[in-house]
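Continued from yesterday's entry.
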Amino acid sequence: MTDKKYQCIETPESSNIKAFSYIKQYKILIVEFKSDHTYSYANVPIEIFYTMKAAESKGKYFNEKIKKKFTHAQIN
């Protein structure tokens, strides 16, 4: 793990998710969709970020483990 406050993971292989990042200090997952909408998800455990990072299908993982399970807000 690096000492950065957040890490941006680009996902060109995903049909839905453009990139995602995690702000460790605040437990916030940020997901940028290919539709150019970006959402923040609050109180996301870091394990969710690491598991999403390792998931074969980022979109499937997001839909099953994150979407509608964490408080979120559109940020653009």
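--- second protein ---
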Amino acid sequence: MTDLTQPGAEPQKPGSRRLKYALIASLALNLLILGTVAGAMYTFGKHPPPRPGHMRGEDFGLMGLSREFPEDRRKEFRKQLRDDRAQLKPMMEEIRVARRGAADKLGAQPFDRAALEAAIATVAEKERAFRQAAVSLFLGHAEQLTPDERQKLADWWRKKSEPPKPRALKKDKAKDAKAEGAGDE
């Protein structure tokens, strides 16, 4: 019988195969974690988390519109918007308290449907009152806008109300456009 091992090479130990698979699995896990962190870092600036205490939507796009105002008007207008937020803040806290109360009713033992229904109705009423106050403040600001500014804000509203375009379709259209361009030659 001939020995096929090379001179100086040691035979493989039985545990080395397991170690090899463990190292491969560890490498795969590390790459997965690295990819997740890199992806989160890449998209972080694109979709920043809302600031604590910041109420989205109560300015109806006025803060963004004010970027186009002259400096002196922008400062005064933004001060008015901050004052509006301060006025709405207690109402938001009332909504949070009502939501926590509803959550408590939901988790209570024994379950009381009527109590939960009443708590949800309270949340809805607080949200309705908040929305009504926010709309009232917005209407006051809308009266102060020039016709051109109102039109810009209306255009922004229209754009925001359009359904988002699926990303996959954008990629497919780009591929289709490339294929059509290549086929024309």
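The longest helix spans residues 71-107. DSSP finds six helices and no strands in the chain. Will compare against the first tomorrow.
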